[in-house]
């Protein structure tokens, strides 16, 4: 039974957006019209469908918001992008702000956070009147904040990275907005903005790109900004667009809304809150997929595998269940061809599912088919250009194709988009390889499956710290767990298999292996394992010789 609180929810759709709301039809229509204007201003179609969830209920909003101060957020998903906002005085500005983040996420390399947030704030005041759109209207709260006292230095402004909470966050947003406003509107700066964007796209380090484009440092620009603000003249930029009067359809969403909210809760990692809806959702492929995602988040992989299979059998049209099913098959040691089949199914159903394209490319790369791998990696990077590991994988395949120039470009993009020290180290290692000597013409480097390719932690199998080779003699089954007795250098050693689904099976295609209990026909094996207090080790990977 669907909770009664969803009786007031509506589903509205315009040509390029869908919106779910309990704030009423008028508020939903206004939000969709603003977004259609924003899309026209940016003139940059995004690869994924966009869903907006406009909350009026504070109770439901509290379940999804990342913090008490948040009035809205953008959440990237594998098959669609979501913008969630709560109705209020600032909701019109917030939806514009979050849409800018969405566009930048699909269309640019990772930017300095001051530039990203300042750009989102600059466009947040967009005001349309027919074909004329004004951008850059002053934001009173920011002007007040800037008048309070000492500003952030250029170093402090540029050191704030995505995901960090700066101690002077209101000042950071205000100063970022003001600086971007000056760069886009003030005559000495605005003519150089296209060059600045071009240099950033070429992977020039941001401080250097700023100096090359504007002829001065960020520190010097901040001194100019103080003068700019004292003048108190905030010019706006006018853009002409086609007048937006989109056709908008409206229908009740009492059935769809709880599924949509559940999917959003799962996307933002609030699995416990999603559980209260999951039990009451009707048995549809979409709801079954949501239950499978919840099981996956709780590491109930066997349940997730069963539920994704059920969603597929029930006629799921989305690509996500096929993709996640392929991942679970791979983790359970299924044959590569079977994994590839479901990945290809996911990619066929949604060519813009970037993670599927990446993993298809990774399979090609592991087989030494680098031209096919490049095609898949390029598709993934085009959809999500801020994923460092997509660019790193591209660099590796370009190197194997002896295309040093493209490899260097991809390695630079991997470095500038690195979100962790590990990603940065790998990008720099690939960059160093692009300066080495190229092989002689006519020679082919041997394929090195998966060499140095960054794979997200969630896609990796557990790794062992130790390696031994020996003869498998006995498997003692103990419920879901098992103990392998392996004779190593004449000495019997016992290794634990805690979860068969988390053991990587490295078997030649002509060999299959079943975990049958009891004495085994002697077979040569090589295993990777990590230390375990109840045995000689816990197996993470096993290869049958």
List the helices and strands and how they pair.
Elements: E1 10-13, E2 18-21, H1 25-42, E3 50-55, H2 58-64, E4 72-76, E5 81-86, H3 91-107, H4 113-124, E6 127-129, E7 132-135, H5 140-146, H6 154-159, H7 169-185, H8 187-190, H9 193-201, H10 206-214, H11 218-231, E8 237-240, E9 249-252, H12 256-267, H13 271-278, H14 285-297, H15 301-313, H16 320-331, H17 336-349, H18 354-366, H19 370-383, H20 388-400, H21 404-416, H22 421-433, E10 466-478, E11 481-488, E12 491-497, E13 504-506, E14 518-530, E15 537-544
Parallel strand pairs: 2-3, 3-5, 12-15, 13-15
Antiparallel strand pairs: 1-2, 1-9, 4-5, 6-7, 7-8, 10-11, 10-14, 11-12, 14-15
Helix pairs in contact: 1-3, 3-4, 4-7, 5-7, 9-10, 12-13, 12-14, 13-14, 14-15, 15-16, 16-17, 17-18, 18-19, 19-20, 20-21, 20-22, 21-22
Describe the 3D structure.
The structure is a single chain. Among the domains are: 138-235, no CATH class; 351-457, Tetratricopeptide repeat domain (Serine Threonine Protein Phosphatase 5, Tetratricopeptide repeat, Alpha Horseshoe); 461-544, OB fold (Dihydrolipoamide Acetyltransferase, E2P) (Beta Barrel). Residues 437-451 and 507-514 have low confidence and may be disordered. The protein has helices spanning 25-42, 58-64, 91-107, 113-124, 140-146, 154-159, 169-185, 187-190, 193-201, 206-214, 218-231, 256-267, 271-278, 285-297, 301-313, 320-331, 336-349, 354-366, 370-383, 388-400, 404-416, 421-433; strands at residues 10-13, 18-21, 50-55, 72-76, 81-86, 127-129, 132-135, 237-240, 249-252, 466-478, 481-488, 491-497, 504-506, 518-530, 537-544. The N and C termini lie far apart (55 Å). The longest helix has 18 residues, at 25-42. The strands form 3 sheets. It has a 6-stranded mixed sheet with strand order 4-5-3-2-1-9, with helices on both faces. Strands 10-11-12-15-14 form a 5-stranded mixed beta barrel. With 545 residues, it is an alpha+beta fold. Helix 18 (354-366) packs antiparallel against helix 19 (370-383) and helix 20 (388-400) packs parallel to helix 22 (421-433).
């Amino acid at each position: 039974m669907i909770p009664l609180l969803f009786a007031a929810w509506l589903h509205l759709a315009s040509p390029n957006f869908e919106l779910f709301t309990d704030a009423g039809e008028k508020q939903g229509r206004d939000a969709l019209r603003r977004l259609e204007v924003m899309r026209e201003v940016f003139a940059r179609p995004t690869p994924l469908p966009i869903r907006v969830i406009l909350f009026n209920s504070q109770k439901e909003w509290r379940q999804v918001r990342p913090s008490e101060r948040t009035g809205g957020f953008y959440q990237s998903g594998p098959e669609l992008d979501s913008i969630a906002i709560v109705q209020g005085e600032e909701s019109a500005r917030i939806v514009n702000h979050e849409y800018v983040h969405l566009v930048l996420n699909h269309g640019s390399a990772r930017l300095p956070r001051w530039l990203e947030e300042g750009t989102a704030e600059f466009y947040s005041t967009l005001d349309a009147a027919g074909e004329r759109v004004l951008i850059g209207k002053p934001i009173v709260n920011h002007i007040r904040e800037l008048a309070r006292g000492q500003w952030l230095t250029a170093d402090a402004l540029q050191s704030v990275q995505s995901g960090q909470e700066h101690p002077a966050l209101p000042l950071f947003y205000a100063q970022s907005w003001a600086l971007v406003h000056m760069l886009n509107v003030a005559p000495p700066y605005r003519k150089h903005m296209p060059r600045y964007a071009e240099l950033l796209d070429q992977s020039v380090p941001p401080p250097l790109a700023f100096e090359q484009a504007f002829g001065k440092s960020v520190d010097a620009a901040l001194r100019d900004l103080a003068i700019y603000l004292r003048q108190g003249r905030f010019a706006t930029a006018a853009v002409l667009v086609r007048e937006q009067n989109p056709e908008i359809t409206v229908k009740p969403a009492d059935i769809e809304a709880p599924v949509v909210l559940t999917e959003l809760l799962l996307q933002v990692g609030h699995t416990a809150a999603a559980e209260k809806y999951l039990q009451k959702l009707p048995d549809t492929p979409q709801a079954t997929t949501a239950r499978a995602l919840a099981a996956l988040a709780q590491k109930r992989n066997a349940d997730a595998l069963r539920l994704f299979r059920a969603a597929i059998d029930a006629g799921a049209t989305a690509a996500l269940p096929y993709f996640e099913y392929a991942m679970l098959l791979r983790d359970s040691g299924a044959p590569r061809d079977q994994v590839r089949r479901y990945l290809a199914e996911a990619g066929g159903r949604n060519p813009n599912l970037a993670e599927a394209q990446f993993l298809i490319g990774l399979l090609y790369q592991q087989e030494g088919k680098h031209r096919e791998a490049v095609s898949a990696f390029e598709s993934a990077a085009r959809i999500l250009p801020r994923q460092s590991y997509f660019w790193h994988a591209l660099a590796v395949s370009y190197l194997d194709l002896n295309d040093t120039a493209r490899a260097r470009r991809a390695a630079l993009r991997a470095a500038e988009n690195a979100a962790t020290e590990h990603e940065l180290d790998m990008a720099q290692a690939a960059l160093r390889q692009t300066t080495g000597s190229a092989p002689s013409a006519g020679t082919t480097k041997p394929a090195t499956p998966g060499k140095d390719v960054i794979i997200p932690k969630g896609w990796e199998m557990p790794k062992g710290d130790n390696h031994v080779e020996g003869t498998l003699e006995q498997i003692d089954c103990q419920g879901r767990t098992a103990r392998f007795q392996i004779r190593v250098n004449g000495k019997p050693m016992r290794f634990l298999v805690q979860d068969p689904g988390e053991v990587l099976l490295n078997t030649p295609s002509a060999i299959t292996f079943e975990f049958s209990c009891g004495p085994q026909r002697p077979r040569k094996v090589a295993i990777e394992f990590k230390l375990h207090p109840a045995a000689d080790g816990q197996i993470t990977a096993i290869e049958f010789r």
